[in-house]
Amino acid sequence: MVRFISWNIDSLNAALTSTSDRALLSQEVLRTIAKEDADIIAIQETKLPPEGPSDKHLALLKEYLPGYDLEWTSSNPPARKGYAGTMTLYREGLKALSDSPKIGAPDTMDDEGRILTLEFDDFYFVNVYTPNAGDELKRLPERQAWDRLYADYLSSLDKKKPVIACGDYNVAHEEIDLANPASNHMSAGFTDEEREGFGNLLAKGFADSFRSLNGDIPSVYTWWSQRIKTSKINNSGWRIDYFVVSDRIKDKIKDSSVIDSGARQDHAPIKLELDL
Q1: For residue range 218-233, what is the model confidence (pLDDT) as tens digits?
Q2: Is 83 a catalytic residue?
Q3: Domains defined along the chain, listed by start
Q4: Which of 109, 116, 213, 267 could pair with 8 as two cysteines, CB 3.0-4.6 Å apart?
Q5: What is the DSSP letter of 81?
Q6: Do the beta carbons of residue 71 and residue 92 sit within 8 Å?
Q7: Neighbours of 192 (CB within 10 A)
């Protein structure tokens, strides 16, 4: 059995070095993740500088998550510094080839550290932080282009070996994937265009592991807005974090679930177990 975890941490530096109430909650989530004893852990929105994690970051990370090697990619000029970014930890002893591909995305999206791919013997593991369509949907056209290019990229990998792709996809695919669909059809993350983009990805030979295993279970979410203090208490959330797997290995899914992140709002980690 191979176990995977994915989590949008919303600033690795803040989670590791701050003493704020929110940082303490983030540190508790890191301890929870450690107990899962995953083989591979994907982290999104690291918000690290172009030179990546500092020695202090690495030392603190090893305290929370010992026994892993890691790869990372950060935002680089002309993209904003300290923006987006991804990191993948994999158990010591595993062998992986790392790539931070450019997919021909518009604007500065290719320079924002949004895709980190590790090639293992039997599969590709892709960690993604999908661009948000933004306030007033200002980045929606670029987001649509991203969705097409990313789907083509995963499809190209899938021709070589099975793909396990995870991360913050910034879209609730169906109405069942958010608490209040009726009032959010023009909100970033639930526009028809973004939902269609995710559907097109699945149509290329991939499965949403959670729905594939669990069917139409309602009220399971991975993100609750920090702007609304009661969002998590009321479970007024969105499911926007996914493990997407090649269709030909979806029958090997043994668990696809959300890890309890306690009182911390924003993203919760998600877990996948495959009998590979």
Answers
A1: 999 999 999 999 999 9
A2: no
A3: 2-274 (3.60.10.10)
A4: 267
A5: T
A6: no
A7: 9
Q: How far apart are CA 242 and CA 237, in angstroms?
A: 14
Task: Pick the catalytic residue from 39, 168, 177, 241.
Answer: 168
**Helix 55-64 / helix 21-36 crossing angle, nearest 10 deg:** 60
168 is catalytic: yes
- Using the structure block, give the residue that is written with the tokens 């702007």: 227
Q: Which amino acid is at 1?
A: M
pLDDT tens, position by position, 38-50: 999 999 999 999 9
Cβ(150)–Cβ(142) below 8 Å: no
> Whole-model pTM?
0.98
Please tell me which residue in 83, 90, 124, 129 is annotated as part of the active site. Answer: 129
Asked whether the beta carbons of 30 and 261 are under 8 A apart, the reply is no
Contact 12, 46 (CB under 8 A): yes
